[in-house]
Amino acid sequence: MTDEPTGRAAMTSNGTPVTDEMLARLADKAEAGFDLDRxxxxxxxxxxxxxxxxxxxxxxxxxxxRHQLHQRAEAEHVSEADIIRRAVxxxxxxxx
Length: 96
Prior knowledge:
Layout: H1 20-32, H2 63-76, H3 80-95
Helix pairs in contact: 2-3
């Protein structure tokens, strides 16, 4: 892993762009110190996406559709998987 810029803006885990103001606020908070009694350890593994552990599904996309998916995910600051899950849920809701 290198520290060289990738040309893409840094994002938080939920897709929010990282700004200089955000970094300054976080640095101030860190310098002030944390209440270690209030910090909760995270459970191991990926976060749940519902009531039960999520299952992985492999899907192949033609290049143009994959490109459109990538563009939409970047524009909305979400993952490609989020776009796919939302599209499938909407499709199933309208065809039920």
